[in-house]
Amino acid sequence: MTNISRLSKKIGAIAESATLKVDAKAKALQAEGRPVISYAAGEPDFPTPPHIVDAARAALDDPKNFRYTAAAGLPELREAIAAKTARDSGWEVPASQVIVTNGGKQAVYQAFQVLLDPGDEVLVPAPYWTSYPEAIQLADGVPVEVFAGADQGYKVTVEQLEAARTERTKVLLFVSPSNPTGAVYTPEETTAIGEWAEANGLWIVADEIYQNLVYDGVRAVSIVEAVPALTDRTILVNGVAKTYAMTGWRLGWMIGPADIIKGAANLQSHLCSNVNNIAQRAAIAALNGPQEPIEEMRLAFDRRRKLIVDELNRVPGFHCPTPEGAFYAYVDVTGALGREIRGTTPRTSLELADLILSEAEVAAVPGEAFGPSGYLRFSYALGDEALLEGVRRIQTLLAE
User: Fold this and answer.
1) Per the count of CB atoms within 10 A, which of 7, 162, 177, 181 is most buried?
2) Domain Aminotransferase class I/classII large spans what residues (predicted)?
3) Tell me: the pLDDT tens digits for 64-83?
4) Closest CA to 366 of 337, 323, 395, 345
5) What range does the domain containing 20 cover?
């Protein structure tokens, strides 16, 4: 009998999503009756707005939604997405260059599948969302980490990108606002990076899932708005999950040049065909319907942002820059490492996260999930009372 692995090398090399792993551990402890407060999942605690849910209910009464539809998405939804893209990203794109996907995560996956050949390199600014490197490697690409710490506001520079570029570099990943840091590139920074990418003939994959969750009067300028010449070499990925509190509806999209979108449509026709029609009808209502409930959620996130940053900066050894977007606080915890806490001396952010979970019953995601050690990510997309209680527990623990 030959010694053949039961699992392919490609799939065997995939790391489990660290954010989902920490969240699952927290939920398991909660199920055991432990009062665990979790900052792990990037998921709004608000219910999906009623007018969106009503649209889904109405869709259930129409038998046409029980049948296969076009793999690329319902025409009405693709039109709504094109209008949103023109409005928020400054790209007047035809609906034919839009593909509706099963969440933004599938859009990210398909973007790299259609762009990369074996050995192609992708510049990945770090800290990065945990799924980016895995999606790149599943497309036989090579993720190249370019790190910016708290001293840079977690934003990479053109000089750093140029130092990391090689003859194998094909794609730059650009994410603003960022998960996990909440960092938002200024219009000038976005323009400089876009012009550098255009001058070097690079493709851009721009994840704009948090573009509407910004604060302090900041606007997340799309890289294609900053540098219109990039529209022929850019894929935008986005979705309704974060802005509209629709994480479980699994509705995202990708936008790009016509030939790229045609290839992605071919891929999706074999991969999964059309996205759930009820979710698509709900997404039409989200994009075209009243936006006042969305603004109410954004204002709540803003209030929580100010609270959590202030409280985290009171924790001994913590340094938390103020995020301008998304709903995450990314804390430099290097000042809290290397000292004894209740008989344990954490040397890494992973060890510190484990200590905080076991001793304070608070779950945060360690920096190892997003790049270098030395950081913790806190999602403030949870209720105000729990948000404050969790940080107070950490303050007490680390003050000992």
Assistant:
1) 181
2) 36-389
3) 999 999 999 999 999 999 99
4) 337
5) 9-47+293-398
Strands 328-332 and 252-255: unpaired
> pTM (2 decimals)?
0.95
Question: What residues does 377 pair with on adjacent strands?
Answer: 330, 365
Strand ordering across the sheet containing 365-366: 328-332, 375-379, 365-366
Amino acid at position 9, single letter: K
Cβ contacts of 264-269, under 8 Å, gap ≥ 24: 264/99, 264/110, 264/111, 264/113, 264/114, 265/71, 265/72, 265/99, 267/110, 267/113, 267/114, 268/71, 268/72, 268/99, 268/101, 268/110, 269/71
User: Contact at 8 Å (CB) between 135 and 165?
Assistant: no
Residues 218 and 104 in one domain: yes
Question: Given 229, 260, 288, which residue is the final one in a domain?
Answer: 288
The answer to whether 219 and 225 are in contact (CB under 8 A) is no
Q: How far apart are CA 43 and CA 213, in angstroms?
A: 13
pLDDT of residue 1: 47
Asked if 116 and 260 count as a contact pair (C-beta separation under 8 A), the reply is: no
Q: How far apart are CA 31 and CA 26, in angstroms?
A: 9
**Model confidence band, residue 27 (pLDDT cutoffs 50, 70, 90):** confident
Domain boundary pick from 253, 288, 323: 288
Contact 107, 237 (CB under 8 A): yes
Q: Which two tokens stand for residue 363?
A: 């779950």
* Residue 99 CA neighbour count, 13 Å, CB half: 33
Whole-angstrom CA distances from 46 to 80, 278, 294, 352, 372 are 23, 20, 10, 30, 32
Q: Which residues contact 90 (CB under 8 A, 6 or more apart)?
A: 221, 222, 224, 225, 228
Residue 337: inside a domain, yes or no? yes
Beta pairing class for 121-126 and 37-38: unpaired
CB 99 within 8 A of CB 254: yes
